[in-house]
Amino acid sequence: MNGEIAARAPGPPGAETILVGLYREHRLALVRFAVLLVGDREAAEDVVQDVFSRLHDRPPEPLTLTYVRVCVLNASRSVLRRRGIAARVMVGRREELVDSAETAALLGESRQEMLAALNRLPRRQREVLVLRYYLDLSHADIAEAMRVRESTVRSTVFRALERLERELGDRA
Amino acid sequence: MTDIEDRLRDAMTARAEAVRDDGRFGTPPASRGASPRFRPWAPVAVAASIAVVTTATVVGTRTVASPTPTVPAVPTAPVAQPTPYVGPLAPPVKQVWPGAVHEIPTKAPGGRVFTPDLFVTDRVVVGAGLTGNRPDGIWSYDVDRRRFTRIAALKSSNASSKLVFGDGYLAWSTLNDRRTEIWAVPVTGGVPRRIASVKAVIIDDSYSGIDLAVADGTAVWSPVDGGGVYRAPLKGGKASLVDGTKGFHLADWPWAERPRRGAEERSASRPVEHLQNVLTGEARDVVPPAGRTSWNDCGVTWCFNNIEAWRRDGTGRHALPGTARGYLHSGRFVLLHQEDRDGRGASSVHDLATGRTGRLFPVPTRRGDKAAPTLYMHEDMFRFRSGSGTQVLVDLNAAAR
After folding, report:
1. Are B347 and B92 in contact (CB under 8 A)?
2. pLDDT at position B285 over 80
3. A60 Cα to chain B: minimum distance (Å)
4. Given an 8 Å threshold on Cβ–Cβ distance, is B18 in contact with A107?
5. Lowest mean pLDDT among B40-44, B98-102, B302-306, B312-316
């Protein structure tokens, strides 16, 4: 265990152990989740690092994978919000997120089209699709994570898929 | 599951897996201390109440969650898992099942996109022709004569789900004016005929369609959202609920299942645990091997989890030569992700009944590897693009023969 962590934030017994365990077990999965929300690896790494750095003074009870995922979701929103502000300040320039050449090559054209269309969706639609089809959460779980009604999740998923279908058609 | 959902899931999984482990393990970053700008991000009560889904993103597959609804507060020691397969990649699928693999054009006459759904014989595949992204006809393609034939024209209002086949008829469903309509046409050609129109199960403006089959001179179906097996005669007549099927979902006629495969509920970690023959009343419940309490999917004969398979009665347990993904196809095939000792990967199809495995295509595992095509998985057929203007079809029913 990192001595600095222990010295600064001893916390209740067990909290640090849980945090270290979560980090070791799930850091990669959380970065992957964040990549789908913010669009690039660097920002995703930052989001996950940031979340863990803020969890040291938490009691152990809420420190579950589910809790950390919600933290990552909300931290990703902050990143996107900051990007939105930056884009408005830099009038006329819209930030385009592009994958590295290597990643693009790995993905292939069809998947890139799908991911580009996903990135063009409004934030809430993009989030529900990632939670639904990447993390495989149920509508009820998504509703709780996003603090919206389950019916809202269902209709948001429906509209988001409809929009993707419209945009992509049969371009497989 | 619709095409767009399949493609979305595939694209997201591929993008996520492009983030490789950089080996930065160890401890989480140091605390920033109590910053005055810090605002709590997650409501504790809300987060704690969310049921946990154990999605094994490392292998990018759906992992069946424990029936336990919440995660333990303190991580316990890692549970001992059987070792996932690392070994030689399977030989090419064409080599394993030469009579079941066909390369065909992606375009039908008139420049239409041809999206095949299923084989109606070993040599003839049937699917929709699309113009401007809209299905405008049902077409067949003969892999021997290498010729397309139009079976029926479709109006945009009666084009919807994938095709199913039985008793010489092709059938499909549509959503029209909040009603599920079931249409059929002889595979030899003709004008589509509406054989049933029933109130659609629409929940919160979301319509999930029906699971449909043709058998015994009837169309049989279950709404995806909702239970019960219904049927209507192909030659016309009233739709009716099949006796004793309330709470069950159409599996492989005459079998009905519970819980439905692919059900959203987190409790569905034992999909298709109960099967009932709707004609005879015979029940077949899963008897898992010792120590196995959940699985990815079960058919009438086979069950599997990520790394092993067994018969429904618990016998015949064996390790899979790769990591299984998705559901059972044709009752006995599973898609595997294989990796060899040199780190090369492949998507392969594996026959649980014979133990034979055929490689579909390599999948990228390292920078510079060629991108894998999108794989479309139908009930009885896999397909993927093989090049400009061609697609490869794997007829699983033929592979089973």
Report:
1. no
2. yes
3. 7
4. yes
5. B40-44
Beta bridge partners of B206: B203
B111 — alpha (psi -120 to 50), left (phi > 0) or beta? left
Question: Phi and psi dihedrals of B68, rounded to 5?
Answer: -65, 125
Touching A: B residues 333-362, CB under 8 Å: none
Sorted by where each starts, the structural domains of chain B and their CATH numbers stand as: 3-48+84-400 (2.130.10)
- Whether the CB-CB separation of B303 and B288 falls below 8 Å is answered with yes
**Is the Cβ–Cβ distance between B139 and B104 less than 8 Å?**
no
Tell me the residue ranges of DSSP E strands in B189-307: 193-199, 202-203, 206-207, 210-215, 218-223, 230-233, 240-241, 249-250, 255-258, 274-277, 283-285, 297-298, 302-304
The mean pLDDT of B182-207, rounded to a whole number, is 87
Query: What pLDDT does residue B28 have?
Result: 67
Tell me whether residues B371 and A107 touch, CB distance under 8 A.
Answer: yes
My answer on whether omega of the bond before B254 falls inside 30° of 0, hence cis, is: yes
Which carries the bigger pLDDT value, residue B111 or residue A89?
A: B111
Asked if B31's CB is within 8 angstroms of A8's CB, the reply is: yes
- Angstrom distance (rounded) from CA A43 to CA A47: 6
Q: Which of B96-105, B151-160, B196-205, B346-355 has the lowest mean pLDDT?
A: B151-160
**Range of weakest confidence among A139-153, B200-214, B216-230:** B200-214
- Asked if the model's pLDDT at residue A61 lies above 80, the reply is no
B216 to chain A, closest Cα gap in Å = 34
State the burial class of residue B387 (Cβ atoms within 10 Å of its Cβ: 0-12, 13-18, 19+). exposed
ipTM associated with this complex: 0.82
CB-CB under 8 Å, A66 with B71: yes
Give the HSE-up count for residue B194: Cα atoms under 13 Å, Cβ half-sphere. Answer: 14
